[in-house]
Structure formats: structure tokens, C-alpha cells
Amino acid sequence: MDISLSDVLTFLRLILDILVVWALIYSAFRLVRNNSRTIQILKGLLVIMIVKVLAVWIGLNTLSYLIDLFLNWGIVAILILFQPEIRGMLEKVGKTTAILPNEFQISQYTNMINELVDACTDMSNSKTGALITIEQSNSLNDYIQSGIRMDSQVSRELLGTIFQYGTPMHDGAVIIQGTQIACAAAYFPPTTKDLPSKYGARHRAAVGISEITDSITIIVSEETGNISVAYRGQLTQYPPEGLKRYLTNRLIQVDEQETPSILQPVIKTAKSFGLSMSKKSDGIVRIDERIKPIEVVDLLEKKQGGK
Ligand SMILES: Nc1ncnc2c1ncn2[C@@H]1O[C@H](COP(=O)(O)OP(=O)(O)OP(=O)(O)O)[C@@H](O)[C@H]1O
């Protein structure tokens, strides 16, 4: 059987087509999964579809016609309802069009980490309580809406001022998106796990948000001045230098090695089929030996009938 160049090109085009459509569907699902508003809207649409099927089945023609009208205009409604999400997605695409991380982005992140760690060190020394969450790939927009919108550059002085005891914004969490403070005074759902008694509501909130998103949360204890990080449901205490290394590893070095988010769905699929494309694909998680936690806190599921 002869295979011509045009057959190969047609095959490659088909593969590319499938991968691009898959990436779009994957991104749409991620958008829905990461945002409780979109889940509510989808639930609403599902109910309307069920009513439509029932209306056709029973023969309620007017109701069926009205639902058809509603669904036909649905695309406009979706564009209006999802306007903030669509804008955010397009902004992300715009920011990640460069295949290699650019020097400017790295220097912005380095600067942000330095300011953040300096602020945490200051607050640790003065025993000022703080809760700071850095958004990763799961959107924190729902939580930003619960706080006071800021959109400001991360700086040692600004963070110190926000968490100053007695000021209107010191209660709640600061959320960082990219290298900007998106809001202050945000509220997080606390964890239901058992924490050692020395940890209170602030640490519960930090572990809570780390259980439902992939965000990184830094906590400075008002009582002890200790700095901890909540990530993926795990609470770990670090010295300031350890915190800096931890954040650099997570926010800069991971970005340097990984491909921009628009291509990640395709790469994740390739990995799940066993096609290794990155240096980390040998399944070994490389831990920076210099990051020495002071304590990794044991978190237990709450016992039935317990507090
Ligand atoms: N669900 C929440 N979301 C965001 N912030 C919260 C939440 N719950 C509590 N906080 C913040 O934590 C503060 C109370 O912290 P609390 O002293 O109870 O916690 P803690 O874990 O013992 O911390 P610390 O060691 O600083 O005392 C509140 O003033 C508020 O700023």
C-alpha cells in the first residue's frame, strides 16, 4: 500500500485538529470546575433542558417554544454572564503566547517573592497576623469577590499596612493573582480537619482554601510570629529563607520548566499516555534539599462527634 505525502499531511492535520479541540474542551471543563458560579449556571441549564424534554414529551407546545427561544438566545446570554471569565481567559492566553518564559516575567516574579518574604519576615518579627494566598491554575475569583478589590503591586510596605492590627482591611486574606494584589479581606471556607490546638481560625482558613484549590497560602501567626505555608491540604512551617526558596521553586522554576498553560492540556494527555516530554517525567519528585521546613503539621480527619 502506497502512502503519499498528502496522506501523511492529512493524518497530521487530523491529529492536530483532535488535539486542539481536546485542549479547548479541557479548558472549558477546567473553567467550569474552578468556578462555583459556572457550576450554578450549568445546573440551571440542565434543569431547563430537562423541562424542555418533558414539555415536548407531554406536548406543552408554548412552553417548548419559549424554551427554544431562550436556548437560541443562550449564546448571547452566556457571553454576557461569563464576560469576566472569558476576559480572564483571553488575558491568560495573551500572557502565555511566548513559548519560553521571558526575562521580564521572571524578574517580576523574583521581585514579588522578595517583597512578599520581606513583608512576612517583618510581620513575623512584630507578631502581626497575616494570611496571603497566591493563585495558581485554579481561579480564586469567587473568593476575590468576597474581599475588597485592590489591583496593586505587591510591596513589603503595602502588605505591612494591610495587616496592621486595627485597620479596616487586616481581617481576612490577601489574594495575589500573578504578581498583583487582587484583593484584601477575603474570606475562605475553613477546613473541617483537626488541627493541633495552637492553630486557630486563620490557619483553618489557609488549610481550607488549599484543600479545594491548588493555591499557595502563607500564614504569619499573630501569637507566635511563625510563618507557615498551606498547600494541597498540608501545613508546613518555614524559616524566612526556606519560604523564599519554596516560593522560588514553586512560582519561578516550575514555570521555567513547564510549557505555557495553553499547551498544558495537550502535554498532560501525552504524559497520561506515557509520552515523556519534560525533565520531571521520570516520576521522581525532585525536592530542593535546601528547603528545610521547621515542622510539617499532622492534620487528621475530624472524629465523628468530635469538636
Ligand atoms: N475563614 C476565614 N477566612 C479568612 N480569614 C480568616 C478566616 N477565619 C479567620 N480569619 C482571620 O484570622 C484571624 C483570627 O485568627 P486566629 O487568631 O483565630 O487564628 P490563629 O490560626 O490562631 O492565628 P494566630 O496564630 O495568628 O493567632 C481573623 O481576625 C481573620 O483575620
TrEMBL record:
Protein species of origin: Faecalitalea cylindroides
GO biological process terms, semicolon-separated: cAMP biosynthetic process
InterPro entries: C-di-AMP_synthase, CdaA, CdaA_N, DisA, DNA_integrity_DisA_N_sf, DNA_integrity_scan_DisA_N
SUPFAM superfamilies for the chain: YojJ-like (SSF143597)
UniProt-listed Enzyme Commission number(s): 2.7.7.85
GO molecular function: adenylate cyclase activity; ATP binding; diadenylate cyclase activity
Function: Catalyzes the condensation of 2 ATP molecules into cyclic di-AMP (c-di-AMP), a second messenger used to regulate differing processes in different bacteria.
Top-tier EC class: transferase
UniProt protein name: Diadenylate cyclase
Keywords noted in UniProt: ATP-binding, Cell membrane, Membrane, Nucleotide-binding, Nucleotidyltransferase, Transferase, Transmembrane, Transmembrane helix
Catalytic activity of the protein: 2 ATP = 3',3'-c-di-AMP + 2 diphosphate
Family, similarity comment: Belongs to the adenylate cyclase family. DacA/CdaA subfamily.
Domain DAC: 83-241
Subunit structure: Probably a homodimer.
Gene3D superfamilies attached to this UniProt entry: DNA integrity scanning protein, DisA, N-terminal domain (3.40.1700.10)
Membrane-spanning residues: 12-29, 41-59
